[in-house]
Amino acid sequence: MKTRHYFGALDALQEGQFSIRELGNRSVGATLHQGKPVVVLNFCPHAGAPICRGKITASQYTDAAYQLHLDAEHPVLRCPWHGWEFSLESGGLHFESRLHLAFLEYELDGTDLYVWI
Ligand code: FES
After folding, report:
1. What is the CATH number of the domain that holds 83?
2. Rounded-to-integer distance, Cα 90 and Cα 9, Å
3. Cβ neighbours of residue 66 under 8 Å, at least 6 residues apart?
4. Which end of the chain, N or C, is less packed with Cβ atoms under 10 Å?
């Protein structure tokens, strides 16, 4: 059964950077993406790194002419241990469909962010 935990004030969150809290014996990270909260378990599905300590950066893609492009509209979270990049929107990897960030359910009460774990 999940329990509701207070994470903090919504206006304390920043785009491009995770805030990390210990809630219910779990490490949880929250950030903003396009003004909306993104809340994930601070645990990389590859090998358990504290993934919220990784860097949020623009995703990259190569076009048909092998030109590299950056896409800041669709950021990724780069794991601090092995550099795998997970979509901040879908939680997935572009090369492996079975591993995902563990998004957590949250709710806003006024300007306060609560997380269900
Ligand atoms: S532990 Fe995250 S990519 Fe390996």
Report:
1. 2.102.10.10
2. 24
3. none
4. N
CA of 43 relative to ligand 1 center, distance in Å: 9
73: containing domain:
4-116
Tokens of residue 56, six digits: 């949020």
Q: What is the pLDDT along the chain (117 residues), one digit of tens a residue?
A: 999 999 999 999 999 999 999 999 999 999 999 999 999 999 999 999 999 999 999 988 889 999 999 988 899 999 999 999 999 999 999 777 889 999 999 999 999 999 999
**Closest ligand 1 atom, residue 79 Cα:** 2
pTM, 2 dp: 0.92
CA of 76 to the centre of ligand 1 (A): 14
* The total number of structural domains that make up the chain: 1
Is 49 a pocket residue for ligand 1 (Cβ < 6 Å)? yes
